[in-house]
Structures are given as C-alpha cells and as structure tokens.
Specification:
Elements (H helix, E strand, L loop, with lengths): L2 H7 L14 H12 L10 E6 L2 H7 L6 H6 L2 E8 L4 H14 L8 H11 L4 H25 L3 E5 L4 H8 L6 E10 L18 H4 L4
Antiparallel strand pairs: 1-2, 2-4, 3-4
Helix pairs in contact: 2-7
C-alpha cells in the first residue's frame, strides 16, 4: 500500500483489545520512525518513553480523557521534550555529530555558539514551546509507520501533563511530557469511530496557492 492509502486506513482508535499486543519487532519499527524524524538543527531535543507497566498506567489513567485507552492499549509512547535548551545539551549533540562523522570536536563551534545565543537567554515558556514543537514531527512519523504496519493508534494531548511528569519522574530526567501515542489493536465492537467516514477539507479548499 502507498503512504496515502495507509493514512486513509488509520483513524484515532477509541477502544483497544487488551488481549492483543504489538510485537517487539513492530514496536521498534515505530520507534525507529520517530527517531529518524527531522528536528531543528538536528538537536533531537526529546525522548520517547515506552510505557508498559500496568501500575504506572493506572496512576495516569484518571488524568486522561480516555482512561480505557490508557489501560487497554498495548503500549503508550510518551513524547517528552527537554525542559529547556542548555549549553551542555547542545554541545553533547554536536560532540556526537563530530565523533560519528570523524571530524574534530569543535568543528561546528560557530554554529553552536549561534544556537546558544538564540536559545539560552530565551524566556522559559518560549524556549520549551520551540522544543515541544519538534516532538510533533516525530509523532506524525510514528503514526504513519503504525498505519503502514496496520497497528491502530491514537495521538493524545488530553491528559494532565504535570501528573504524567510526576508519575514517570520526568523532572529528574530534565524532561516534560508533550503528547501520548496509544498503540495496539482495536476492539472492533467498542471502537465507535472506526465505521464512521473520515471528514477532511477538500484538497482544493485545504491548499492555498500564492
């Protein structure tokens, strides 16, 4: 199937069959799609946390709009962004870049100095907002890969970020949750959205040519 066919197949699953689990092989393909997502300046300023533990899920479930999905899906992917840019984080990424490319460390110092000038003194809210936006590119690619594998998924922002951060100890990791992605296999009897027609703007209305 083509990517367009895969995207037409997928929908935001509203009920999962708790007896069906995504294989480790397919999970890794979804994670790899997220890992390969483009990010601003190649900084990859986020982590994807794979949440399987039922006790942690139970603590998160009451804070989510669809608690049953939290409890019943195969895995929850937590897209968690850096809490802010720091000189150390920027240098760590570019040290890795130079090492992998067999270049001397400091090869990109003019560029990393520019990044630090842009971000380090920026207001905290604006700084985090820029970082958080990077996670949505990875989320989109993960959703597309899940669709290609015919794995049902649900992107979710309807949850208490502070509660998720607390339960998972994200503050200690220098991270803040941005979005969740539930993956698994739909319970076809309870997934009320599945039989409904997709509603999207016609292409000629969606695209503005200038």
């Amino acid at each position: 199937m083509s990517l367009i066919e895969d995207l037409n197949w997928r929908h935001a699953c509203k009920a999962y069959d708790p007896t069906k689990k995504v294989s480790q092989e397919d999970l890794e393909k979804i994670l790899e799609a997220a890992r390969l997502a483009p990010t601003s300046s190649g900084l990859q300023p986020f982590k994807v946390i794979v949440l399987k533990d039922s006790e942690l899920r139970e603590q998160i479930a009451p804070t989510a709009l669809n608690a049953d999905c939290v409890r019943e899906c195969s895995h929850i992917l937590v897209f968690a962004a850096w809490d802010r840019y720091t000189a150390e984080r920027i240098d760590t990424v570019y040290d890795l870049t130079t090492d992998v490319r067999d270049l001397p460390r400091g090869r990109f110092v003019n560029y990393t100095d520019k990044l630090k000038e842009m971000y380090l003194d920026e207001a905290a809210d604006a700084n985090f907002a820029h970082i958080a936006r990077q996670t949505y590119i990875a989320l989109g690619l993960a959703l597309a890969q899940a669709a290609e594998l015919k794995i049902d998924s649900t992107p979710a922002e309807g949850f208490d970020n502070a509660a998720v951060d607390r339960v998972l100890g994200l503050q200690e990791l220098g991270l803040r949750s941005v979005s969740l992605m539930y993956i698994g296999y739909a319970d076809k009897e309870r997934d009320w959205l599945a039989p409904m027609k997709k509603v999207r703007q016609p292409l000629e209305e969606f695209v503005v040519e200038m």
